[in-house]
Write a structure and sequence with these properties.
Layout lengths: L1 H10 L7 E6 L2 H9 L8 E4 L6 E4 L1 H5 L8 H4 L2 H5 L2 E4 L2 H16 L5 E5 L2 E5 L7 H16 L3 E6 L2 H13 L6 E3 L5 H9 L11 H9 L5 H5 L3 H7 L2 H10 L17 E11 L2 H21 L2 E12 L9 E12 L2 H15 L6 E13 L20 H17 L30 H9 L1
Parallel strand pairs: 2-4, 7-8
Antiparallel strand pairs: 1-6, 1-7, 2-3, 5-6, 9-12, 10-11, 10-12
Helix pairs in contact: 6-7, 12-13, 14-15
The chain binds a DNA duplex through helix 4, helix 10 and strand 9.
Length: 444
DNA sequence: TCTGGGGTCCTAGGACCC
DNA sequence: TCTGGGGTCCTAGGACCC
């Protein structure tokens, strides 16, 4: 018992707590359905960038056997055979819908952690409410106000809440809400005994295999495993999971999102690219997006990375390479960052390959003006002085793009209508953020 | 023809220092 | 010349998440 106490005092506040996880069902598909009722009752998938593979599936699509991450070319024939509908992903729409959903959910608790685009934790501890009824109210309100179906799981820890949400989603008899905090220990154990350990939050494919080989095959097995042994054989992370399954909250709700420590921007090409100037254009475009994100969170980057690679699915010889370039002075100036990744690209580029993907990363990110040493000789490799003028320029660029729409102002190097741009042939309109596209959709 | 993108955290191992 | 141990810092890679 003292062990439990010391562990929980190190990692979080003591039990009992009540944490809810609210999760949008088939979120991307549900967003599409809100604006296109023809998608109702039909197998629908939303495709990854480049129309590559299915990243969201309606219940009907799951029922006809379409797997998560399945490539589109493998299932496309089901358009004819099963009335399948495949849509390009429309992240502008999804993130707007997400914000609306999170705003509604925030009214149900002063403590909210937005965990991903379609799910958030709410701390319901110490609130004098009927939690199950409240959870149903949450579902009803989100459904009624923005048209998105959800499920709610409640537990004494985040890991329990995740598991409860899984139960609420998979087992219709729970009617969309599973509250473990009102169950007796033996009832919880019976539920956990009926679920595979691989479903636990934090247990992926590799860990699942290793746990199975040790005879730990259900969630209950993991809950009952010796934390010390788990720590020794695996890691402190999985040990924490064991405690969390036991209802000892080790993970706190993080209601403020910390600034990103790295920012990636990368894309697969719509078709192979071999010509260096095209790659330069792509890398310039990606870096512009990454730098925008960097400035939005008020940070500067101390290093950049650029990578290119050919397709790993090709029979042709593979080539992939990356290079990291430290910056003498950390910066958020798109032009400086671009110059560096272009130099890096020239270094790793090899002629004679069909490249399928390129990307850039911003690393060594810190808050602007913190621990930053201004280099007396900061002409840098770029010939661009970090001056107040650069700052003004970036501010103006970001402001114009925020107001007039993305890509209104950009660097010449980004190119105009690049032929390598990703495929998005099955795109739905930006219903909620562009009045012209909404009008078009209504006219259809 | 056609297989996503963007994150975090932990650990092991090497370099370097005393 | 050879022999030791311990600490820190950094990086690369692996595992996980959505």
């Amino acid at each position: 018992m003292s062990e439990i106490r010391s562990f929980s005092s190190r990692f979080g506040t003591p039990s009992p707590r009540a944490i809810a996880l609210v999760d949008g069902n088939n979120f991307y598909v549900s967003c599409e359905r809100v604006f296109n009722p023809k998608l109702e009752d039909r197998p629908v998938v939303v495709l990854s960038n480049n129309d590559g593979c299915a990243v969201a599936r309606s219940a009907e699509a799951k029922a006809v056997g379409i797997g998560m991450g399945q490539p589109w070319f493998q299932i496309q024939e089901m358009e004819q055979t099963h009335g399948l509908i495949g849509l390009s992903s429309n992240y502008t729409l999804y993130s707007d819908m997400s914000q609306r959903m999170m705003t509604i959910l925030s009214q149900f608790s002063p403590q909210q952690e937005v965990y991903s685009i379609d799910e958030c934790f709410l701390d319901l501890s110490g609130m004098d409410i009927d939690r199950t009824a409240t959870a149903q109210k949450i579902r009803h309100q989100v459904r009624q106000w923005i048209g998105i179906p959800t499920c709610v799981g409640i537990g004494s820890s985040k890991t329990q809440a995740k598991l409860a949400n899984h139960i609420a989603k998979k087992r219709p008899e729970w009617n969309g809400v599973c509250d473990l905090t009102v169950l007796a220990e033996h009832q919880i154990d019976r539920l956990m005994g009926s679920i595979e350990v691989g479903e636990v939050w934090g247990v992926g494919r590799k860990l699942n295999e290793q746990l199975q080989s040790l005879g730990i095959s259900s969630v209950l097995d993991l809950k009952r495993a010796d934390p010390k042994v788990i720590r020794r054989r695996f890691s402190v992370v999985l040990e924490r999971t064991v405690w969390e399954l036991r209802g000892v909250a080790c993970l706190n709700l993080e209601d403020i999102t910390p600034p990103r420590q790295q920012i990636i921007s990368s894309r697969s090409f719509g078709k192979p690219v071999w010509y260096l100037p095209d790659l330069k254009q792509a890398v310039t475009t990606y870096m512009s997006r990454a730098a925008e994100k960097l400035r939005r969170q008020g940070s500067v980057a101390g290093a950049v990375q650029v990578f290119i690679r050919t397709s790993p699915f090709n029979t042709k010889p593979f080539y992939g390479n990356s290079i990291t370039l430290p910056l003498i002075t950390a910066t958020d100036d798109t032009r400086v960052l671009v110059k560096h990744v272009i130099r890096g690209l020239e270094h790793i580029y090899r002629a004679g390959y069909d490249y399928q993907k390129a990307g850039v990363m911003l690393l060594d990110i810190r808050l602007k003006g913190q621990g930053q040493v201004n280099d007396l000789f900061a002409a840098d490799m770029t010939g661009l002085q970090p001056t107040g003028k650069a700052e003004q320029l970036m501010l103006v660029m970001d402001a114009i793009n925020a107001r007039m729409g993305k890509h209104t102002v950009k660097l010449a190097g980004e190119g105009f209508k690049p032929h390598w741009a990703m495929k998005r042939n099955r795109h739905s309109p930006a219903y909620t953020t562009d009045i012209r596209q909404l009008a078009w959709a209504i006219a259809q």
